[in-house]
Amino acid sequence: MLRYIVRRLLQMVLTFFGATFIVYALMFAVQDDPIQALVGERPITASQRTALTERFHLNDNFFAQYWYYMKGLLTGDFGTSMTNRKVADMLADAWPVTLRLSLLAIVIAAAVAILAGVVSGIRRGSIFDNATLVITLIVLAMPIVVLAPLAQLIFGIKLGWFPVTAGKDASLWQLLLPAIVLASLVVATELRVTRASVAENLRADYVRTARAKGLTRARVIGVHVLRNSLIPVITLIGVDLGALMSGAIVTEKVFNIPGVGFNLFRGIRTEDGPLVVGFVSVLVIVFLVVNLLVDLLYAALDPRIRYE
Amino acid sequence: MRGNGPWKMAAGVAAIALLAGGCSGGSSDDDETLPNTISIGIVEPDSLVPSNTTEANGSSVLASIFYPLIRFDDNSNPYTVAAESITHDKANKVWTIKLRSGFTFSNGEPVTADNYINAWNYGAYGPNAQLASYFFSRIDGYAQMQSIDPDGSGPDKASEPKAKKLTGLAKLNDLTFRVTLSAGFSGWESVMGNDSFYPLPKAAFKSDGVLADGFGDAPIGNGPFKMKGKWEHDSKIVVEKVADFKGTIPKVDGITWKIYQDLGAQYADLIAGNLDVETKIPIESLASASGDLGARLQKSKSSAFSFVGFPLYDKDYQNRDVRRAISMAINREEMTDQIFLGSETPATSFVSPVVAGYRANTCGDNCVYNPTEAKDLYTKANGPKDLKISYNADGGHKAWVDAMCNQIKASLGVNCTGSPEPKLADLLKKVREHKSVGMIRLAWAMDYPLMENYLAPLYTTDGSSNYYGYTNTAFDSLVAEGSAAATTQAAQKKWQDAEDILATDMPVLPLRFGQNVYGFSEKVTNVSMDLFQKVDIYKIEVAS
Amino acid sequence: MSDSAVSEQAVLEKVVGKPRSLASDAWHDLRRSKIFWIASVLILVILLMAAWPSLFTSADPRACVLSRQHRGASGSAIFGYDFQGCDVYAKTVYGARYSIVVGVFATLISGVIGAAVGLSAGFFGGWIDAILSRFIDIVLGVPLLLGAIVLAKRLSANPESNGVFAVTFTLGVLGWTTAARVMRSSVLTAKNQDYVAAARMLGASNSRLLFRHILPNSMASFTVVLTILLGINIASEATLSFLGIGLKGDAISWGIAISEATGYVRVAAGPLIWPSLFLAATVLAFIMLGDAVRDAFDPKLR
User: Fold this and answer.
1) Residues of chain B neighbouring A169 (CB-CB closer than 8 A)
2) Per residue of chain B (544 residues), what is the pLDDT tens digit?
3) Measured between alpha carbons, how far is C225 from A163 in angstroms, rounded to an integer?
4) Facing residue for B417 by CB, picked from C250, C263, C266
5) From the CB of residue A5, how many other CB atoms can be counted at a distance below 10 Å?
6) Which chain A positions have a beta carbon within 8 Å of B9's beta carbon?
7) Closest partner residue to C220 among A189, A196, A302, by Cβ?
8) Separation between Cα atoms, residue B68 and residue B86, nearest integer Å
9) Cα separation, A203 vs C217, whole angstroms
10) Is A164 close to B233, i.e. CB distance below 8 A?
11) Nearest chain C residue to B409, by CA
12) Are B452 and B478 spatial neighbours (Cβ–Cβ below 8 Å)?
């Protein structure tokens, strides 16, 4: 097991470089005219263009630019965004709030999905099962661009149950409504997958064996079925966690949370290479760690899965 | 199943994760609302260095920290503020600026002529790449401060500029300096109303001509407010009153400039009472805004001008009658009423009503909705069967572009589609490469309130925003003659003649003049906005 | 207890008595499934709508007149008119085509890539798993938006294209990671089951093990992920279109219609609700079909 973890950690280093390289290349491919993108609708003079091109090494070739960037990154310098802010500062500003938001969302999503999923898996075809299906479908069919402002309008402004916006130093209470909105994005898949695997495991031989041994229904479901049904759900949660961090663009915008999704979106729109690569580098590390944890959880949940 | 190890493990992971998240923040309640302070919503400014600020958000914040040489009255005529007097020679070439005495920066430094000269030299120096540096281009010596890259965008380093200072700036004494222009310009006083002409204190510079690190995050100005702490990026900028300020004294003790990513979120905070002023109500919220805000929803004049440019390099659009027909095929009134819900007004001139010299309907019959004549003209001119309007998808233009296309389809009986590009830079790149983009959606907001600012950059042959490639030597020389004219009246006459040429040639299709559509909370009164989309921070006060 | 004993007996009889292929077994079960028929009819209607929208409406979805803005339902336009004064019913019917094409084909592409990567990683393990899994990690790390902008820019360089291929390909190529991770996890569980070990001991080849034993037993979660991905893809198309890297020209789709109507939901909800309903019904139909087919193919159910 320890050897496996060490090997995974080594793989991480390689993956990290692979990922930064790919993202750097993608940003390079996106960059048509980052200087015009930087100034927006204003015209730029030739002299400004010259100065900015030199400042950001924009006229060097791809490998030279990548080399500049990696040299900085390896010495812990994430570089400077085209808006003249240190990317390290921007990371430090954006990650805490995103981390809290996405963890809160994933906890809400997992709790709802696993609870409701298990009940519908056991009572397939019941009113509860069909009702959750319809509700998840409605949520699914409503794009986030509709859901987030609507939730804000109804629960924030009209009913006044939740704070309307969150901001940078938001408390968990301020983040609750955006977290619920975010959770609704992933809850459908997680719920359906829980339901499917619970239903499947209920039919497995070991359940019959356990029941035959005289174990109570609660124990059979609570311990044996749930434990075996969790593997695909945990996989999903792992993937979703990362997706919520980078993909919360709309939710962050509606609730005015200057997090990772917002910064990525801004960076991509303004063709700001150092900004995007910096954020994605950290994001990839998060993915790598979370997926390692998920793989380790597999082995814990199912002793037959072994890594060596 | 042996024990419940995995559960403990899972719970442990979750607990650690939550702790990690929970610990790192949550020290909220930072907005201790002092009694006489207000909050105004903005979008994250590009910069707070005056010579690098060209958009309304940064400009609003700077207006509270700095005190300008001149301001504009209701008729857009300049009057002196930080300057005691501004005089010029007969040729409008040499301008002498005398400063009011007794003013200091918020760090205690007295304001002197040197502060202006150093700031302007910094802004004009090419390698500093200040976005507003073109404002200094009329001053003598500007050209020598720009670097020229020998191989365009190639790998060779650009040459060092010949000069580091503007030769046209000269200090006469501590409170007086002289500006020499490279050519006479009667409107120069108005140009100096721009943000880039604010002075910078000695503390702003690390060494001669090099800005101190971090100055952009906590600028020090000569205005009625000073920064309280640093610019908290993507979150807020707080300013507080300067004690015994010598100029006009504002009625509030402090302003929190709250930064929003999105106007929708800003609007939500406004009607929830978390924000005092929103300077731009989003169109989607306009329909419900009068119900939400009542009399606290207001409109005022702004300088914005929206138009559609014809790609004159494209054969399809080279026939003047085609352009005239398209212009007559659209119903501007219906668009401003139905799409913009009256927040913008139809444009039938090329120059905005906010500047002196504006005349109504200079576009004449060409801008009057007349589908039958439009169709006649279009068929006779043998216009293209497929029309396209390109726009940038990130500016909320889809609704009106689609509506305009629908009007064109209905009037001319040809096909018309809106074609989105991710951002304006992508669209302009295609235009520069003379790709077939169809008509181009464009807009203009003035730099200074002169007719010339609506003409020279947009339509002269080497105009900085003349993307569509319009060229007319008669027009060019009229604009130049106007700028060189001895008096503003004489200048206006020339510029009006130039505008008439546009009405005949129709290089662009005027669509709408913008307005400030703003809303405020019950906490504040006397909210008004100027032509540059800025709240008047001297008039606004807390309701008693 | 007695119930399961009986059913076991029945299964045994079925298997021993009448040896039939899995597929014909499944078809036998499907024919008697009510859910299967409901789903099939729904999907058929939607496909018809996508192929021949003019069967459902005679109105032109592109004939929009501003003066009809947000006018309510009437005989000629049963769902009323939207912000631009377009017939909402006609727009919804015509919107089916691109939404279905993008949704179904992008999901298929994701499904094929996801299944291939997930199966190989889970089944072979070792360095194959290491390489494929880390590759998944990298793709997960690339923001969808960035990948989409790059791909869409390159794919839709031709100004004449309507962008359908670009959008489908982009969503398909970037959306397979979840499916792959889920497939891998199911395979990891399935390959340790006793029957797989038994089959392996009996000398079954790798491909037989994979496609006969492991794949059918790993389909449950995978199918669910794919059916929901279908809905997500239809909605994602709208996002891309709104950023200017999606469908071009006067293309009509549910996603675009929904996004356009969102801003005016407080004024007129109809233009938002109708396409959303059609989208929900489509996803529902595919979820039901997926459930029914999976049940029919599940060897443990017989």
Assistant:
1) 25-28, 30, 235
2) 334 444 454 444 444 444 444 444 434 444 456 789 999 999 999 889 999 888 889 999 999 999 999 999 888 889 999 999 999 998 899 999 999 999 999 999 999 999 999 999 999 998 888 888 889 999 999 989 887 765 555 555 667 888 899 999 999 999 999 999 999 998 899 999 999 999 999 999 998 889 998 899 999 999 999 999 999 999 999 999 999 898 999 999 999 999 998 888 999 999 988 999 999 998 888 888 888 999 999 999 999 999 999 999 999 999 999 999 999 999 999 999 988 988 999 999 999 999 989 999 999 999 999 999 999 999 999 999 999 999 988 878 888 999 999 999 999 999 998 888 888 888 888 888 888 889 999 999 898 999 999 999 999 998 888 988 899 999 999 999 999 898 888 999 999 999 999 999 999 999 999 999 999 999 999 999 998 889 999 999 998 7
3) 33
4) C250
5) 13
6) 297, 300
7) A196
8) 13
9) 12
10) no
11) C63
12) no
C130 — contact with chain A (CB < 8 Å)? yes
What burial letters (b/e) apply to A27-63, b meaning 16+ CB within 10 Å? bbebbbbbbbbbbbbbbbbebbbbbbbbebebbeeee
Burial A234-260 (b: 16+ CB within 10 A, else e): bbbbbbbbbbbbbbbbbbbbbbbbbbb
Those of residues 15-74 in A touching chain C at CB distance below 8 A are 15, 18-19, 22-23, 26-27, 29-30
Chain A contacts of C92, Cβ < 8 Å? none
Nearest residue to C141 (alpha-carbon basis) of B123, A283, B337, B486: A283
Residue C159: its chain B contacts at CB < 8 A? 419, 435-436
A143 touches chain C (CB under 8 A): yes
Concatenated DSSP letters of A119-141: HHHHTTTSHHHHHHHHHHHHHHH
Q: What is the 3-state secondary structure (H, E, C) of C121-172?
A: HHHHCHHHHHHHHHHHHHHHHCCHHHHHHHHHHHHCCCCCCCCHHHHHHHHH
**ipTM, two decimals:** 0.84
C65: nearest CB among B410, B419, B435? B410
Which residues of chain A neighbour B257 with C-beta distances below 8 Å?
A: none
CB atoms within 10 A of CB B48: 23
CB spacing of A284 vs C141 below 8 angstroms: yes
DSSP symbols for chain A: -HHHHHHHHHHHHHHHHHHHHHHHHHHHHH-S-HHHHHHTTS---HHHHHHHHHHTTTTS-HHHHHHHHHHHHHTT---B-TTS-BHHHHHHHHHHHHHHHHHHHHHHHHHHHHHHHHHHHHTTTSHHHHHHHHHHHHHHHS-HHHHHHHHIIIIIIIS--S-S---TT--HHHHHHHHHHHHHHHHHHHHHHHHHHHHHHHTSHHHHHHHHTT--HHHIIIIIIHHHHHHHHHHHHHHHHHHHHHH-HHHHHHTT--SHHHHHHHHHHTT-HHHHHHHHHHHHHHHHHHHHHHHHHHHHH-TT----
Q: 206-265 in C: which are within 8 Å (CB) of A?
A: 220-221, 223-225, 227-228, 231-232, 235, 238-239, 255, 258-259, 262, 265
Is the C-alpha dihedral spanning B126, B129, B134, B139 positive or negative? negative
Interface of C with A in 177-196 (CB under 8 A): 177-178, 181-182, 184-186, 188-189, 192
Chain B contact set for A45 (CB, 8 A): 133-134, 146, 464
From chain C, the residues in CB contact with B335 under 8 A are: 66
DSSP string, B33-94: --TTEEEEEEEPPS-SSGGG--SHHHHHHHHHH---SEEE-TTS-EEESSEEEEEE-TTS-E
